């Protein structure tokens, strides 16, 4: 009968199989959400711009309530855009910007302050004080001696330890020194990076945790021992009780409270954004290299089960932990890649980012014009900033745009050379992602300079995909990493076309400009 048919349809809808995974990437500039099917195809998407707050010069914050609203909003919008029901979502994976943190009251859940961004510079004075201190010099000597006699790489990093404003430890120390409420309530204080805060909110305060990738990115977590660093916390007067338990990256963290999305969606992965992009690119083998060019530039090398000690410019991270498997990465980074290109657009050097590669190729060279990067204020020298050098009456917009794009490729070359020198693992194919990887001029020039093939995926939102992959593995939607490899879709491959020697005059001029700029400003 008609009534029986309607009843059968309702039962089928109610029992619709959970065949989709939601991957959310909470980045520095946007919160993006994609709904993926079993074939890793995007079925629905949503994006909202992250609005940073600048209450004082050098301070960068995020409103936790606004971020929470954006997170919930993009998930609902993406699922609706996919044309599916929340019941069909098998798992939720969350990728987040690293080192941005917040503290809140353990019992009430009320934040003591806004999120303090990884870009925030409020700890500059504290950083300078520590880096000049006698105590730090003593620490250098002690660990240099320990490394000499033991040969243990664990003692190498502290032997040349210097603090920076990007480190969570320094900003957290600033919080305990400058926000009286945090100090007064330190026994009831919770610390969390963005992932921990979102998990806490999603579970209505019932789950307080982070994963190994996010923990290792704070600089407070010791990757060798896989524990929060008690020595560092003691030095900085930070109580150990504030830190969350650390769980596997692909793990059942619990379910979102049904009041939020209508159903209890399982939260099956928390992961830091660069590590997530590495996983999304399927860089599973030692020697696999991932290059992300977004707001900043990040080079990551899979070092397998080997943890390489920090070297100047490179530092070790935990990529992910799944069961007994722990994968380590070595990372190097450069700042202000996407930021620089966005600035150039804002001052009308070009209308659309898509034009820039064509503009750069329309001229033979930059006519000696060099772009010296550095939009951030340095903790050690506040006069350091970005600049153009070599400007002439004949300089056009095309020359300026080409100079900016060349500076990205030159910095990629510098960092790659450090990786080759310091990482004792044969490097395999480089896989690129991030918005700037869509620029064919930068990609081809980088390939030429490093003399390696670079693959670019069809979908450059790798952080979202990586979180989805990790969540899908935990939920059983995908069985193993071999299955994930088969889902990769490559849009373009850039192979070396020019000899690196052809770029030597231009790169030498650029390097001289950078040195000259730093020298001139340091003597102001």
Features:
22 strands, EC 2.7.1.30, single chain, 7-stranded mixed β-sheet, alpha/beta, 524 residues, 21% strand, disordered N terminus, nucleotide-binding, glycerol kinase activity, FGGY_C
Short account of what is shown:
This protein has 524 residues and is α/β, with parallel strands linked by helices. It is built from 19 helices and 22 strands.
What does this structure look like?
Helix content is 38%, strand content 21%. A 7-stranded mixed β-sheet has the order 16-17-15-14-20-21-22, with helices on both faces. Helix 12 crosses helix 17 and helix 15 runs parallel beside helix 16. The longest helix has 26 residues, at 397-422. It is globular and about 65 Å long. Mean pLDDT is 89; it is low at 2-15 and 376-383. Keywords: ATP-binding, Cytoplasm, Glycerol metabolism, Kinase, Nucleotide-binding, Transferase. This is Glycerol kinase 5. Residues 290-474 form the Carbohydrate kinase FGGY C-terminal domain. InterPro entries: ATPase_NBD, Carb_kinase_FGGY, Carb_kinase_FGGY_CS, FGGY_C, FGGY_N, GK5.
Helix tally equals: 19
The count of β-strands is: 22
Residue share in helix: 25-40%
Provide the residue-averaged pLDDT.
89
Amino- and carboxy-terminal Cα gap: 88 Å
Q: What coarse outline follows from CA principal-axis ratios?
A: globular
Look at the helices and sheets and give the structural class: alpha/beta
Largest sheet: 7 strands, mixed
| Alpha carbon gyration radius | 24 Å
The quaternary state of the protein chains shown equals single chain
